[in-house]
Structure formats: structure tokens, C-alpha cells
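In keeping with the milestone schedule agreed at the kick-off meeting, the structural modelling team has produced records for the first pair of proteins. Each record is given below as a sequence line and a C-alpha cell line. The laboratory manager (R.T.) confirmed that both were archived under the project's standard naming scheme.
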Amino acid sequence: MQLTKDQSQEVKITAIESLKSPKVPSDAKLKCLSEASSTNEWREKESIVKLLPELSMDSNEYNPIIIQMLQDDACAVRKAVISKLSTLAARSNSTLKTDIRPALREMFESNDYQLRQASILAIIKLGLFDEDGMNILENATKDYVSNVRYVLAENIPKGPKFQPIINILKSDKDEDVRSLFN
């Protein structure tokens, strides 16, 4: 597993992908992924994210890596995690929906609008429509960055529970946000 520390990005990605092998012990997989996830290279992180559903079927030990990747600086990494959240949360005995909540709140309260967008998308993807999740979605309708409101408008589920949010977005000051409901 020393190859995950190699200088070559291609070698590192290949080494990360080799962790799928059932011959690699779980603790070694976790250690390698934890070390590899500290890289600054988004392609390596994206390869980790793509691998997680295959590795973490019965383990919540990977949740910190999932949460770390959701907060990554690279949009491609955040998108990759968001696309895998449903699968990861559906694992047997998964605690991801519980473990991720504090991070989602922190991300939404961030000054970084892209983290606020990721928080909204994760809430919707995971169906976290309890009081806290709905509070974040409602507050997103007032976000000063129109791109945050646009992401909400583009992804908000349709239905009576979401109608108050939809009604606010229908009259948003940004025409692109409003246009999603016409």
C-alpha cells in the first residue's frame, strides 16, 4: 500500500483502486484511504470517492472520509460524493445520516457559497427533511448568493411539504431562479 504515496498520480490512483481487492484487510484499506484523502490532488480524491461504495458496505469507519470529501475545495470531489450519498447511506447499519448532520449545518453557515450549495444538495439527496434540514432549506431561500438559491430551486422536491419554499423561490429577485418554476 506504499504506492498510495507514490509521486506519480497515475500510480496513486491505481493503488487506490486496488483497495477493492477482498485480500486487502479492512483496517489497511481505511488507513490507506485516510492517508490518500489528505492529498491536494482532486483526481486522487475523486477516485477515492468513486471507490467508497464498494469498500464501505458494512462499515461506518469511512464516514469521516465521506464528510471530509463533501467539504473539499474541488467541485468535482463534492459532486462525486453527493452522487454517492444515497448508496452510502443505504448501507446496512449506516449512521451516515446522523454523522453528517453537524457538517451539513457547519457547511451551510460557511462563508463559502459552494459549501452552502453542497449542504443543500446533500440534504436533498439524503432526504433529511426533518426540522433541521427544512430550516436549512428555508434559510437558503434568503441566501445573498443567487447561485445558492438557484441550486435549491433546481433540486427542491415537489410536494406540499416544500410548497412554502417553492412559493418564495417563484418570486425570487433573480430571474434565473424564478424561471425554473415557469
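The second protein of the pair:
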Amino acid sequence: MHRNWILGLAMLFAGSALAGLPVGSVVIYSDGTAEKLIEKGEGLQRWQDDRKRLSVRSTNPILPKLERRTFLSGKGYRQQLIRGNPDSIRGLRWSDTPVEFTLLRTREDGSKSQRHWECRALGASTKKVAGVQRMIENYHCERFNIHRKLHNRDFRERLELSYSPELDLVVDMKRETRTRKAR
């Protein structure tokens, strides 16, 4: 899945210097969905999508959603960092050394699972976003499971991310997941 992040910004003016998007900004994606930034806190952003689902994201672009809840049922999950330091990748222009971290996902029913990630900084580039040429940081991340007996990696997901520090927003994402084989 390739998802471009087209900005339909209610409160963003081209050419203005911003420290991220202001609360109330709406982001419209290339697949037709939209999200609204409803709250900003210390290193976190709370978003609401067009179907009233809430999600919490870190301002660190390589961290996946930390929380997700549906509007009517309240079902969802919460993730917390249990190993590694994903913030060590911030500001790197290019890195041959991967940053590894593990998240613990807890669902509303109490079930838990670990999600292992490995990310690399691919360097900086420029990209036109919301009509303005902006500096972009590029990252490559892979999620994998570790086999409980053999301890080898089992691929689950691959992400190519382009992040705008000026907007504090991932502006382009390519995602590939493992296709399950029939048993």
C-alpha cells in the first residue's frame, strides 16, 4: 500500500514558519480518508479520523500508533515501549547502524503481544508538500516476530517513511505486509 499524505490544512499558511501543525489541522490522504489533529502534548499527538476513531501518535516518526480506539465499541489497543531507544534515530542524516526497539501491544480484552522493529535513517531530501518545498527525513523500518524456539526473524511488515520535521508529520508512507499462506 502506498499512501501519500496530502495536506488539506484548515490553519496552515504556505510559507509560514511553523513548529508542527496547529491543533485543528486536517490531513487528507491519497486514499480519501482524513484525520484531524485534536490535541498536542509532550511528544504526543491525538488524532481523530473521519469515522471518529481516535489514535495517539508519538512525534517520533518511526514509532507506530501508540493507541487506537473505535468510537462506538471502544475497542482498540495501546502500545508501550519496553526495549530499545527509537529516539536515537532522530536527527541522523544517514545511518548504517539500525535502531531496534520492541513495543508491547495490549488489547482491550487484556491480550498482549510484542512487536519488534528495526529502523534505519536513509538521509534527507526535499519534497513539495502543501505547495511548499520542504526538507524531508527518510526512514526504512521492518517489523518482525522472533521465533520462540529457533530465535530467527519472521518478516511481518516493511515501511518506507518520509517525515517533515517542519510540519511534524509523516508526509509519505509505503507499506508492505507479509501475505499469509493458506494452511
